[in-house]
């Protein structure tokens, strides 16, 4: 079999070579000519998979190593008997850790305590549910909004959107949908920002289209929100220069880019492809995940500032400000090179391991601190 794959899927050649010949190319360079004689197509979110790409091709199976599918025309695949899979939940922990890192960075910058603050989570699927657990571990009051889940479960833990508008933080974790009663395209629009009862920090790690960029800039200019953390953007890779400047933290769609998450996504689509073609899987994630650079962190500080201890601990594993700095360099890049710069930040993203790979040793026994550190994902000794 011939397999065409996005070169940004880690170890895709090493893993899928057990199924056939693997050709890796840039995701934005995957075109009808590239896939014409391919049996399997493996993509990420930057490749639109539809009739324009696949008509007349030999493709029998498509997989995206992402948790979202808004770039895939699933109806076309189904009508043409082309198998399909994706990787729901594969990088959900990575995104949740990104949110934790962002919250701790904001707390340090603005000198406020997260404990006791409220956070509204829009979308409580694989990602949002993990964000809820980690922010609750930080001592935050969590309010959940997910209309489809509320209808399916009849559980009143899912609250109307209006109840989130008075929170100190609002974070979006929905898929991007453009139709139906739960459409999320421009969910955060002028009406949304004008309805805020407080001046929250707004966080979007879902899809750029979930937020109206013009409305967000207006809300920031009018002081209706305290700040924005953006990992996803409308019109990627040509992202809004003004929005980069206005945001508290700007990152290049990498919230889910932990190495663990990438490998998990790759293995999920590999297993599904093997099953589709009646083959036996030969690899697991453990075959590709190396030992982390930092296996142990000793915390011997006598400080009573638990939030600062957690901030400094997280920084050793994931320095979110570094991603912000690198993204802001787009502002000094020539206009015709900005899109390529954005893509290169993602393509050449450094290895980032998840908190779970690092053990924390507390010199000073503190049950509450240990509970918080464990709650955001570290192991404790």
Description:
It is a single chain. The strands form three sheets. A six-stranded parallel beta sheet has the order 7-6-8-9-10-11. It has a five-stranded parallel beta sheet with strand order 2-1-3-4-5. Strands 12-13-14 form a three-stranded parallel beta sheet, with helices on one face. The longest helix has 19 residues, at 92-110. α5 runs parallel beside α6 (126-137), α5 (92-110) crosses α12 (306-317) and α6 runs antiparallel to α15. The radius of gyration is 21 Å and the shape is globular. The mean pLDDT is 96. The protein is built from 15 helices and 14 strands. α4 (74-79) links the parallel β4 and β5 (83-85). It has helices at residues 12-16, 32-35, 51-54, 74-79, 92-110, 126-137, 147-153, 190-194, 213-221, 241-246, 259-276, 306-317, 320-328, 338-347, 367-375, and strands spanning 2-6, 21-25, 40-43, 61-64, 83-85, 118-122, 141-145, 169-172, 201-204, 227-230, 249-250, 296-299, 359-362, 379-380. The chain folds into three domains: 2-86 and 258-287, NAD(P)-binding Rossmann-like Domain (Rossmann fold); 92-250, NAD(P)-binding Rossmann-like Domain (Rossmann fold, 3-Layer(aba) Sandwich), CATH 3.40.50; 296-380, 2-Layer Sandwich (Ribosomal Protein S8, Chain: A, domain 1), CATH 3.30.1370. With 381 residues, it is an alpha/beta fold.
Q: Helices and strands in order, then pairings?
A:
Layout: E1 2-6, H1 12-16, E2 21-25, H2 32-35, E3 40-43, H3 51-54, E4 61-64, H4 74-79, E5 83-85, H5 92-110, E6 118-122, H6 126-137, E7 141-145, H7 147-153, E8 169-172, H8 190-194, E9 201-204, H9 213-221, E10 227-230, H10 241-246, E11 249-250, H11 259-276, E12 296-299, H12 306-317, H13 320-328, H14 338-347, E13 359-362, H15 367-375, E14 379-380
Parallel strand pairs: 1-2, 1-3, 3-4, 4-5, 6-7, 6-8, 8-9, 9-10, 10-11, 12-13, 13-14
């Amino acid at each position: 079999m011939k397999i065409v794959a996005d070169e940004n899927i880690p170890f895709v050649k090493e893993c899928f070579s057990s199924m056939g010949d693997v050709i890796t190319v840039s995701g934005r360079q995957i075109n009808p000519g590239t896939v014409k004689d391919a049996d399997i197509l493996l993509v990420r979110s930057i490749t639109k998979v539809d009739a324009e790409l696949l008509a007349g091709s030999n493709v029998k199976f498509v997989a995206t190593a992402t948790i979202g599918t808004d770039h895939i025309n699933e109806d076309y695949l189904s009508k043409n008997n082309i198998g399909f899979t994706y990787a729901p939940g594969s990088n959900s922990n990575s995104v949740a850790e990104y949110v934790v890192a962002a919250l701790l960075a904001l707390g340090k910058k603005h000198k406020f305590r997260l404990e006791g603050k409220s956070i509204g989570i829009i979308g409580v699927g694989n990602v949002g549910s993990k964000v809820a657990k980690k922010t609750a571990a930080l001592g935050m009051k969590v309010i959940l909004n997910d209309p489809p889940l509320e209808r399916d479960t009849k559980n009143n833990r899912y609250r109307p959107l209006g109840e989130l508008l008075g929170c100190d933080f609002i974070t979006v974790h929905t898929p991007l949908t453009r139709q139906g009663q739960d459409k999320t395209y421009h969910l955060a629009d002028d009406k949304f920002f004008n309805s805020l009862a407080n001046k929250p920090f707004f966080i979007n790690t879902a899809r750029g289209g979930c937020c109206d960029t013009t409305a967000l800039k207006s809300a920031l200019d009018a002081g209706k929100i305290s700040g924005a953390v953006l990992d996803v953007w409308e019109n990627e890779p040509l992202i809004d220069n003004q929005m980069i400047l206005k945001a508290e933290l700007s990152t290049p769609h990498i919230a889910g880019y932990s190495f663990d998450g990438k490998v998990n996504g790759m293995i999920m689509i590999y297993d599904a492809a093997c099953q589709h073609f009646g083959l036996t899987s030969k690899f697991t994630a453990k075959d590709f995940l190396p030992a982390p650079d930092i296996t142990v962190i000793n915390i011997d500080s006598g400080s009573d500032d638990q939030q600062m201890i957690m901030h400094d601990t997280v920084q050793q594993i994931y320095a979110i400000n570094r991603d912000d700095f690198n993204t802001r360099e787009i502002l000094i890049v020539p206009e015709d090179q900005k899109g390529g710069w954005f893509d290169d930040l993602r393509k050449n993203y450094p290895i980032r391991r998840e908190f779970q790979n690092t053990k924390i040793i507390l010199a000073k026994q503190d049950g509450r601190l240990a509970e918080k550190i464990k709650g955001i994902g570290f192991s404790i000794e």
